[in-house]
Amino acid sequence: MRIAIFDKSSIPLLAILLLLAGLVVLFGISLRSDAVDEAVKSDRILNVLFVVDLGGKPVSTELFLFYPATGRGAVLDVPGETGLIIKSLNRVDRIDALFKDGRIKPYIDEIARLLAAEVPYYIVLDATGLAIATDLLEGLELFLPQAIDSPGPPPVRLPSGALVLDGDKVVQYASYVEPDEGDADTAARRQKLFQALIRRLGERSSWIARSDVFPVFKRSFKTNLTDDAFRRFVKELARLDADKLVLQRITGAWRIVDGKRLLFPHYDGELVRDIVKQTLNALSNSTESGVADKIFTVEILNGTPEKGLAKKTAEIFQSFGYDVITVGNANREDLERTQIIDRYANSDAAKNVAAVIRCENLSRVEGVAPGEAVADFTVILGKDFNGRYCIAP
Fold first, then answer.
1. What pLDDT does residue 178 have?
2. What is the rounded CA–CA span in Å between residue 101 and residue 288?
3. Please, are residues 298 and 352 in contact by the beta-carbon 8 Å criterion?
4. pLDDT score for 29
């Protein structure tokens, strides 16, 4: 048997290789820090994934799209039940099946593929970390329209009204599941918690940056942001009005696959990819600052014989963050071309509404007194609408 003999002459070569490997790692960290610094200080949008992990399961996943140059932002709720073909698992499953054993990267990579967007940064809080972070922030402000009294498990008991919840109560709120709650309400509840957290981070940015507080706070969560990058990030959050965040969510159809109830995004994910693309464009367009800060109301009427078309279209507009206040039938069923009526009298806002369904037939109603209009915009669906887009003849 041949015995391997270590050649001492290879030691210098090995040392050089180790040195080069170390330089590559340091260079990667430097690039990561510089990229965040560039996004915060210039005109680039910063995408950060916030995950609340309770018991090894992501109970809340929110993609935060933040434009530091203007202090504007949007948040997209990604349900853990989102169903798709996961190539790495070679099966159809819920997206949170990739979140296990403390490994966040496969989960983030799949979300990035689903959204066709870069998700370079993440912040993950488990139950202990969420409680500690909340207490260091001196509580989170939440409004509960009605009291919660659930035997669990875990048991959740919270009063109604405007509350400042401590760490343990915030964990209760995050873990609460309402069996009869609709998809929109569930997403809204998760996003309410995110808004409270991001608002408090901005309000307490100076406190967090203190040399005696920051190390303790940073240990409460996992992130790939460097210390300096996180400090800059929190500092810029002080400019954000969390109440004006554009709230969006993934919508789709529920199906049972292998005994699991999965939410399959509409149009094979094309809708949510459009949401992200248009949101990024809107946030980066400085001429639309006033438009981005307002949640517009929309009325959707069906001008075709197809049943349920207005309701399906309402889901599309709700996914983009619009407040659909009326869904019904138009006074005719033979409308050839879809029409959008603008009562808000803002060309940028009207273009954004039209872009959702690629409608080019816009008209404006002048002289509408405040409070008289049914909604800011009325969408009347015609025969050219295929359920997703208006198709040119």
1. 84
2. 43
3. no
4. 46
Write the pLDDT tens digit of every residue in 173-209: 999 988 888 899 999 999 999 999 999 999 999 999 9
Nearest to 311 by CA among 247, 251, 254: 251
Compute the distance between CA of residue 315 and CA of residue 184 in angstroms, rounded to an integer.
Answer: 10
Identify each DSSP E strand in the chain by its residue range.
46-54, 57-67, 72-77, 83-86, 91-94, 121-126, 140-144, 148-150, 156-158, 161-165, 222-223, 246-249, 252-257, 260-265, 297-302, 323-329, 339-342, 362-364, 377-381
Which pLDDT score, from 0 to 100, does residue 171 have?
A: 96
What would the DSSP string read from start to end of 231-266?
HHHHHHHTT--GGGPEEEE--EEEEEETTEEEEEEG
Task: Specify the pLDDT at position 6.
Answer: 47
Q: Which residues of the chain have pLDDT under 50?
A: 1-4, 6, 24-27, 29-33, 289
Element (H, E) at 314: helix 309-319
Residue 312 CA to residue 110 CA, distance in Å, equals: 26
Residue 294: which residues within 8 A CB-CB, separation 6 or more?
349
Query: Which residues are paired to 52 by β-bridges?
Result: 60, 125
Domains parsed from the chain with CATH numbers: 32-287 (3.40.630.190), 297-381 (3.30.70.2390)
CA distance 100 to 387: 37
Shortest CA distance to 73 belongs to which of 233, 226, 219, 262? 233
Give residue for tokens 């806002």.
349
- What is the number of other CB atoms lying within 10 angstroms of the CB of residue 255? 12
Euclidean distance between CA atoms 150 and 172, whole angstroms: 10
- pLDDT the model gives residue 244: 87
